[in-house]
Design a protein that fits this description.
Radius of gyration: 18 Å
Number of helices: 1
Distance between the termini: 41 Å
Largest sheet: 6 strands, antiparallel
CATH class: Mainly Beta
Strand content: 35-45%
CATH topology: SH3 type barrels
CATH architecture: Roll
Number of domains: 1
Strand order of the largest sheet: 6-3-2-1-7-8
Order of helices and strands: EEEEEEEEEEH
Structural class: mainly beta
Helix content: under 10%
């Protein structure tokens, strides 16, 4: 059984992040996947490892494939869209009536909204609006 993080992650899929610790320090990339149970993220072009693949119909040659491996979420920070430097993330309530979905993330260094630039602001899939 995997542990559950005590707080919700401030990093989401599609965010532009910078690695701030480890062998790939200084590299930037988009978040491809977030694993909340293990507090890890997979970042595009960061922490590349070789994966040995067996021959199959999909991969008839087999061999070694370069693939991104997960990085701990504490080793990455969101990049401020205005200043292009790593920043911490704040939250503010935009609309009381929406409850938890009315929360907007913003960069603490510049105050710029992070949800507007990444194209999020999406609700749950399949839900209809209350109108």
């Amino acid at each position: 059984m995997a542990k559950r993080s005590p707080h919700r992650s401030r990093i989401r899929r599609g965010d532009l992040v910078m690695v701030v610790a480890g062998a790939d320090r200084g590299q930037q990339g988009r978040v491809l996947r977030v694993d909340h149970d293990d507090d890890k993220v997979v970042v595009e072009g960061v922490n590349l490892v070789y994966r040995h693949v067996r021959r199959s119909q999909k991969n008839p040659q087999g061999g070694r494939v370069r693939r991104e491996a997960p990085v701990h979420i504490s080793n990455v920070m969101i990049v401020d869209p205005e200043k292009n430097v790593p920043t911490r993330v704040g939250r503010k309530i935009v609309d009381e009536s929406l409850g938890a979905r009315g929360v907007e993330r913003f960069a603490l260094k510049s105050g710029t909204s992070l949800d507007a630039e990444s194209g999020s602001k999406k609700g749950r899939k399949g839900r209809k609006s209350k109108e």
